[in-house]
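Re: [ENG-882] Designed sequences occasionally contain unexpected residues at chain ends

Forwarding the minimal case from QA. Structure tokens:
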């Protein structure tokens, strides 16, 4: 089969790799129907996150089950499924508590020795605990596929930020970051009943999506100017809940600084380029809580799926370009130079 392989910074290729096969009785093999490139994939692409030459890449996909191991009981060949970006056994204490990302048996797609999501097929460990079955008739619903795909990571991650930040009905929310996760954070905040949503971003195409997703205000400034702008919009108080979806020191400083006293920051931006920049003294003095981390998408997908199916939320609008597998390197270049927000891969 063909799959996306990374060999070094700015060197992503489509290569022939061995077909996936059942290794353990809890495995399944899934033929990929749709996948995508994530903003976090760009850190490997840019050389910020290290990868072994020849390693697979990609962690978001929809597909159809082709084969199952002898101990898989909840899935059969032909089932249409979405895969969260982390596999998990579904039975350990962490999984039962809804924190599938801490499963001792879990792992991330594209780890050395595992298949990445940007390929024609994937071996899925612990298929019963990992995959979420979707209505079979949806496999041919092209309009709905982007939003179903978004559940695998960006929508679930935006929701995790909103939950961690304690978004509640009527709350004022600020979202730091206008990438796909930040935009899905806006959508998640609206879904949870936020009364006012301030999106921090400067790219007009992205802030237009933010407004469609429910943002009531847009702040284009950064750093101290952004803090001042948010304070001005909130009568000097700041936001009850702040979603941080970038992962840089500056973005974390901004998030804490625009939080209202007694409020909370939900951080889901993958940390890179140094420390998180959290000012503990400021948090202590102003009673600001910080929570977040890797989103347990497997726990959130069943919660979010009904709203996707009903049309109440349409997170697939974050995809602004679709490519076929052979053109994935072009998709990486487009996201790297910011001519594309998020690229979907059609098979």
């Amino acid at each position: 089969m063909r799959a996306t392989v990374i060999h070094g910074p700015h060197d992503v290729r489509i290569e022939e790799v061995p077909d996936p096969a059942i290794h353990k009785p809890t495995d399944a093999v899934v033929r990929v129907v749709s996948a995508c490139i994530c903003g976090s994939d760009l850190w490997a692409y840019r050389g910020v996150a290290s990868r072994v030459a020849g390693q697979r890449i990609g962690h978001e996909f929809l597909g159809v089950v082709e084969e199952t191991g002898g101990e898989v009981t909840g899935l059969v060949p032909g089932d249409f499924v979405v895969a969260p970006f982390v596999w998990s056994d579904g039975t350990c204490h962490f999984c039962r508590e809804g924190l599938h990302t801490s499963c001792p048996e879990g792992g991330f797609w594209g780890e050395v020795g595992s298949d990445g999501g940007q390929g024609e097929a994937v071996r899925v460990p612990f298929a019963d605990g990992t995959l979420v079955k979707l209505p079979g008739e949806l496999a041919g619903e092209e309009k709905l596929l982007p939003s179903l795909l978004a559940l695998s990571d960006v929508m679930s991650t935006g929701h995790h930020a909103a939950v961690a930040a304690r978004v509640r009905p009527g709350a004022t929310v600020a979202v730091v970051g206008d990438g796909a996760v930040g935009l899905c954070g806006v959508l998640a905040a609206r879904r949870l009943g936020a009364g006012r949503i301030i999106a921090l971003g400067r790219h007009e195409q992205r802030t237009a999506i933010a407004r469609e997703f429910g943002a009531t205000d847009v702040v284009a400034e950064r750093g101290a100017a952004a803090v001042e702008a948010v304070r001005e919009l909130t009568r000097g108080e700041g936001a009850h809940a702040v979603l941080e979806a970038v992962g840089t020191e500056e973005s974390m400083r901004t998030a804490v600084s625009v939080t209202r006293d007694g409020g909370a920051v939900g951080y889901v931006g993958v940390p890179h380029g140094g420390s998180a920049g959290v000012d503990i003294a400021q948090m202590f003095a102003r009673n600001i809580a910080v929570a977040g981390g890797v989103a347990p998408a497997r726990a959130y997908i069943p919660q979010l799926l009904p709203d996707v199916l009903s049309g109440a939320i349409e997170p697939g609008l974050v995809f602004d370009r679709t490519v076929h597998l052979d053109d994935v390197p072009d998709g990486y270049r487009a996201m790297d130079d910011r001519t594309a927000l998020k690229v979907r891969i059609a098979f």
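QA comment: On inspection the terminal residues look reasonable. The chain has two domains: 2-153+296-346, 157-292. Proposing we downgrade this to a documentation issue.
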